[in-house]
Amino acid sequence: MITTRFAPSPTGRLHVGNIRTALHNWMLARQGGGRFILRIDDTDAERSREDYVDAIRADLTWLGLSWDAEERQSARLDRYEAAFAALKAAGRIYPCYESAQELEVKRKIALGRGLPPIYDRAALKLTDAERAAKEAEGTPSHWRFLLDHAEPIQWDDGIRGPQKFDAAQLSDPVIRRADGSWLYMMPSAVDDIDMGVTQVLRGEDHVSNTAVQIQIFTALYAAGFAAGESAAKTLPAFAHEALLVGREGKLSKRLGSLGCDAFRERGIEPEAIIALLARLGTSLPVEPIADRAALVASFDLATFGRAPAKFDEEDLERLNAGIVHQLPFDAVAARLPDGMDEAGWHAIRPNLAHIGEAADWWQLVTGPIVQPDFSAEDKAFLTEAGRLLVWGDSPWGALTTVLKEATGRKGKGLFLPLRQALTGMDHGPDMGELLPLIGEEEARARLGQAAA
Ligand code: GLU
């Protein structure tokens, strides 16, 4: 059984990058008939906010990304305490006493010598007496996880292929602050074990975290921590997607703040966002596919490329129009102007880039409309149109056929003055569909007014 998770930190609103990660994890779970967990990573009590948690839920709901379970890190502190104790007993956690400034100085010195800024494990080399002295002085300690330099780190990444890391090239990660609070690294691994997560799919900014977490997973397994029926007994499969960049190819600030509110305001349908983000950065064609099941069925990590995925807002607009043209009346009825029925929706839908524009086009049906000034010749033609108009099943087809015969006009000369008289516009929805909606009485009135 596949279990995936989306693990946002509620320190802000979701942006396109997060939405993409959520969507892909959702698709992976739905494709395999598995579970999709929403995990709120709220160990940072200062920056986490409840209104962001609500907004994350609301955004996922608007996007139609339903989750099967919700978990919160702040409710699982006892599990992190247990994992910490197990790792400590196994000799994989050690206290450190350096201040932030000291660490920064060490970092600068290393960089100045052209060396990678890897933590030097000075705290590990303290003697028992030195450690006791620090404690006696009341120097606060934070805690690091001891990486095993002898253990090779490798995994077969679902997108990036075989990955290899040398643990000696990584810093032992700080997993707990001096005030007892948790950093991201260990709780996430504990959760993935406890929640039986089988696939971890996230952005490539997490690749080196994965290297570290693989050792945390392994150490937790070795310490017998993965108990319980639902716990994952083996490492999850990892996959890291290339990051999303703006059209210019750069990591853009704009993308970092572009979220559901902005999309909603611009009249972008969730299905357009889904259709774009489902396939962006893959070798599959990006098309206005409104059928989610089809998107889920075609989702395949093997189609993902290593190059950054370019998010282009023009693509989104194009897809939105394509999606709007397919939406059934039932799906949009509540957002349409009063009185607009299914026939009205079908007539007007092909002209819309956004559903919000329906009201402007519907105005052509309900009136009032503003007609242009017609030439004397066109006035005569429109008088003739009023005389020959017979209301039946397809009044437009019938009218244009008899008018063509009677006047010899064709093409633009035939259709344009009629469209202008009946709608006030040079272009617009199909007149065959529109005229029945305008109705006989109103149509006669408009032709009469145009000819006057
Ligand atoms: N809270 C982390 C983030 O938002 C989760 C990363 C992960 O998927 O493990 O980056």
TrEMBL record:
It is an enzyme of class 6 (ligase). It comes from the Bacteria. Its EC number is 6.1.1.17. It is found in: Cytoplasm. Its main location: cytoplasm. One of its GO terms (molecular function) is tRNA binding. It catalyses: tRNA(Glu) + L-glutamate + ATP = L-glutamyl-tRNA(Glu) + AMP + diphosphate. Residues 2-317 form the Glutamyl/glutaminyl-tRNA synthetase class Ib catalytic domain. It holds the Pfam family Anticodon_2. One of its GO terms (cellular component) is cytoplasm. InterPro entries: aa-tRNA-synth_I_cd-bd, aa-tRNA-synth_I_codon-bd_sub2, aa-tRNA-synth_I_CS, aa_tRNA-synth_I_cd-bd_sf, Glu-tRNA-ligase_bac/mito, Glu/Gln-tRNA-synth, Glu/Gln-tRNA-synth_Ib_cat-dom, GluQ/Sye. Catalyzes the attachment of glutamate to tRNA(Glu) in a two-step reaction: glutamate is first activated by ATP to form Glu-AMP and then transferred to the acceptor end of tRNA(Glu). HAMAP family: Glu_tRNA_synth_type1 (MF_00022). Monomer. This is Glutamate--tRNA ligase.
